[in-house]
From TrEMBL:
Coiled coil: 199-226, 294-363
Protein name (Swiss-Prot/TrEMBL): SMC hinge domain-containing protein
PANTHER family, alphabetized: STRUCTURAL MAINTENANCE OF CHROMOSOMES PROTEIN 3
UniProt entry tagged with the keyword Transmembrane: no
GO terms for MF: ATP binding
UniProt keyword terms in alphabetical order: Coiled coil
Keyword presence, Electron transport: no
Signal peptide: none
GO biological process: chromosome organization
Organism name: marine metagenome
Domain SMC hinge: 554-671
InterPro entries, A to Z: P-loop_NTPase (IPR027417), RecF/RecN/SMC_N (IPR003395), SMC_hinge (IPR010935), SMC_hinge_sf (IPR036277)
Amino acid sequence: MQQGIQLHNLEISGFKSFPDRSELAFDQGVTAIVGPNGCGKSNLVDAITWVLGEQSAKSLRGARMEDVIFSGSDGRKPTSAAEVKLLLKGVVSASNGNGNGHNVPVAVEHSDVSVVTQDTELAGVGTRDVVVSRRLYRSGESEYLIDGKVCRLRDVQDLLMDAGVGVKGYAVIEQGKIGQILSARAHDRRLLIEEAAGVTKYKSRRRAAELKLDAAQQNLVRVEDIVYEVQKQRNALKRQAAKARRYRRLRDELRKWEKVVFAHRYQLLGETVEAARLELTEARSREQVAADSLSQVETRQEQLRIKLAESETKVTSDRDTVHACDLDIKKRQQQIEFDKEQISNLNVTLQELRGEVSNLKLRQEPARIDLSERRKTVDLVRHERDQVAQQLSDVEVEDLGIRQAVEVKEKDVEACRSDVFSVINTATTLQHTLEHATNAQTRLLDELAKIDIENQDVKSETQQLSATHQTTVEARALVQKDLGTVLEAYGKCQRELSTLCEQHSVLLEKANTSDRDIATFAARLQSLEELSTARTGYIDGARFILSQKSETIPHFGSVADYVNVAPEYECAVEACLGNLLQYVVVSRHVHATEWLEYIRKEKAGRCGFLVVDDSPIKTEQSENITPAELLSVESVVTVEGPYASAIREAIRVVAGRVAIAKTPEQAITVAGQTSQQIVTLSGDIFSGSRLVCGGGQT
């Protein structure tokens, strides 16, 4: 290792086979580390290589960078991180440093670590002890530290590069490395010597600077391309700026007239809506009055209908009662007739029974006399009883039969008498019932007469109610008709109001869209005005002169400031006139000469001038006649301003042999028939039947 730089101390924690914090001190002279195989000698060298910035896990004898973290053993758990600290003594640093080998704090993300040459004999150069640390976590995060402050890998590399200490340098010589150095080519030896001399740092910085210069050069090329494209677009942007200004003027005028129209429509709508509201209010009032009247009529009609129903029910009930009485009267009359016939029959039977009783009474008296005589005879001739027993027995039997017959007749007489009394009672009852029925019939007839009278009154009142109801229905129909008319008018007003609201919404949306378009065009106009003011798209010399304000050498703008072209002919006219549109207008030739001297002196580029003095211009009469189907450039260009005549002459000189075709087919047809150049509306140029030039802006 170079004189003055010394490894002083190595501290390891969690690195490979060193799970615990281990510290190794390097004394003056040679330090040898011996031990059996597998004790970790190579791991110490790997730790030094790793802390110096080694990025290859393969160089550290592992598959992944996480393999350097202690992975555990039978008696120990794996550690979560690996850390190695290396103390370097005699690191060269500038005298104005802060003692850690750099001029500025290495903890700053974009700071540059400044390590000066290793020649300690130079003025202002000293040495310092530096602690370089590296940590790696199992999550994959890692960090570098110099003197305990977080820094970048590049800071560590820059710090060690001047000292000749590096991962790939001669400071760490592995097995077989000496043989590789001895057998290396001259180029490889040169790299090793440059690293030992501290040149590698400056070569890496030179490479970074060259990359930055290449990027800057590419950016310059891109800027030149952009400037070229912007220059090509300047004329079109200028015309768009004029359109935008005209649009702004027309927009303001349109908004003014739209406000007038909207105000007028709003007034008309207000009047229409107010009239519709008045009509609706009146219609609702009439509807309310008609509804109240109709409600009263319907209430009266309902009352009369109820009364009529009650009357009809009563009439029906009375009719049923009268009919029942009639049926009862007829039934009783039939019963009376039947009873009369029964009475008549009973009277006949009674007369017959009375005759039979009389006969029996007439027969009973002789029998009694005969019996008395016989009893006397029996008493007298009792002793003759035996002789006349048979005769007496016959007489007794006959007497018993007569008695029985008398008793039967008496019973029949009593029964007939009871029947007669019953018939008389029944006849009396029927007579009374007939009298009651007659009285009831009389009353019913009177009630029927009254009911008929009431029915006539009810019918009359019903007819009146029907007439009133008809009148009410007609009035209601009229009210409903008026209400329908009013509702139709109200619906029409509502539809008109809805239509007007929709129109107002559409107009408002259009106004908002117009405002957005105006804002867009305003921003576009501002950009175009800025481009127009900066003369973007002009050649350098013209842009330089147009940006100057000189009282001694005046100019009057460019030719493009005086030319107006319809939008459809812009590309064609631009292709025809070319750079003439960028010519600066001056009043005298001496002014043009002075401006040319001025831009040569300032190295501002080239520029063309159009002198508009009053001297006559001699122009050759062109023998070319523009075909009838084509347009001349002069016919589509309008020149305004105080120098219009001079600019027209210049356009005639430049574009006298050019004609404009509306379609490519027309240009192809005419190009071979004339010596003029044919330009299409898209800016394509046809020269004869074989030459074509065109394209578009990128």
